[in-house]
Amino acid sequence: MAKDGKEMDFRLEAMLGELKGTLGKIGGEQAAEFAQAVYGAPRVFLAGCGRSGLMVRAFAMRCMHMGKTAYVLGDVTTPAIAAGDLLVVASGSGETESLVSHTRKAKKLGAKVAAVTIYPQAAIGRLADCTVWINAPTAKSEQETGVTSIQPMGSLFEQSLLLFLDATIVRMMELAGVSPAEMFQNHANLE
């Protein structure tokens, strides 16, 4: 390992390049439709498993800072979803069984579904009213497409997901005319 940090610099540079390339492939219409769906929903429910679940939790927090009513599936304070609500599902594979089940149930109850996935043609993407495709390679897709990442497993998808969701918040701030200072008024104060 180099003592001067050049190896780490190279890795970070490569990762940033991967992120830029992946995020640059997200369709503008898909992104705009997604932001409008979240912005216009009376209540937003968020679901994801593993590291994708951590990214949607961060998005739920920012939605709350925006003044949106947002819930993460699985939290004990999450109420029943209803017609007109929005379920946001983040799933790299688009086939995670529990998330497919949540998506089907939400649709049955009249809620809208917005999906963010690597595989828009998978079950969750097919069920969703709005789907955003993040073209990030995973161990599974590398075998299918030959596109690779220097990062392990779904890291590139999860990082891209977080940045895409943060960009969605910036768009929602523009739509609502809300400033960071106004959002900070909703920040936790029992720290």
Automatic annotation (TrEMBL):
UniProt xrefs under PROSITE patterns: SIS
Domain SIS residues, every copy: 34-178
InterPro entries named among the record's database cross-references: PHI/rmpB, SIS_dom, SIS_dom_sf
Superkingdom assignment: Bacteria
SUPFAM superfamilies: SIS domain
GO biological process terms held by the UniProt record: carbohydrate derivative metabolic process
GO molecular function: carbohydrate derivative binding; isomerase activity
UniProt keyword list: Isomerase
CDD domains registered for this protein in UniProt: SIS_PHI
Gene3D superfamilies listed in its UniProt record: Glucose-6-phosphate isomerase like protein, domain 1
Pfam families registered for this protein in UniProt: SIS
Family, similarity comment: Belongs to the SIS family. PHI subfamily.
Protein name: 6-phospho 3-hexuloisomerase
Organism listed in the record: Christensenella minuta
Source taxonomy: Bacteria, Bacillati, Bacillota, Clostridia, Christensenellales
